[in-house]
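Supplementary Text 2. Reproducibility record for the structural model of the 207-residue chain.

All settings were left at their defaults, and a single model was retained for analysis rather than an ensemble. We include the record here because the model underlies the residue-level annotations in Supplementary Table 4.
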Amino acid sequence: MDAPQNVITSEVIGQSLPYEGYMELVREAVAQGKTTGLEQSNFLAQLTKDNLAIMERTYQTPLLPDLVELVQALPRPQIWLVLTEGWCGDAAVHVPVLAAIAEQSANLELRTILRSEQPGVMDAYLTNSGKSIPKLIALNAQTLQPLGTWGPRPEVLQQYVLDLKQQELPMPEFIKKALQYSEDNNGEALQAELLHLLPHWIRASVA
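Retained model, structure tokens:
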């Protein structure tokens, strides 16, 4: 079922942060021994600290030339609104890559909102009834009409995580293995999926 069109309002966009602002928020949280958002624990704070180094690495991920060419040729401005949190490993791996892609085009702007602070948006964009992040919502920048979504992870990584869950590993080991698999992929699966999805979003933006 499609999310209601009025879930993402100009007020929501106004409360969002550009990627640089999100990174500053994560760094500030780490400096204070915390995580982002309303949910706080020592475990989440440690994950956020670990994720900061990952985010700085994945921001340097090589971009596919075909994808860069596609975003540079966007006919209408888009906003990529991303639900995220500093403690989320999948967000640490993929949100910096999304930001780097968005920076390639004057017609593409990436904005971030925190899952815990925007429950209405999160509840409208569940994955298999779960509040999985990161969740990218592509929007027509002028109308805020949703064009499509991506997330929380590429299908090949999603399948790996589902298989990993069957092993019933301790949570720290599960997170470590899932994160390593995602890092090893180096943004390739994400970019391949965006190459497939973006033409659909472009068509929706000009319809």
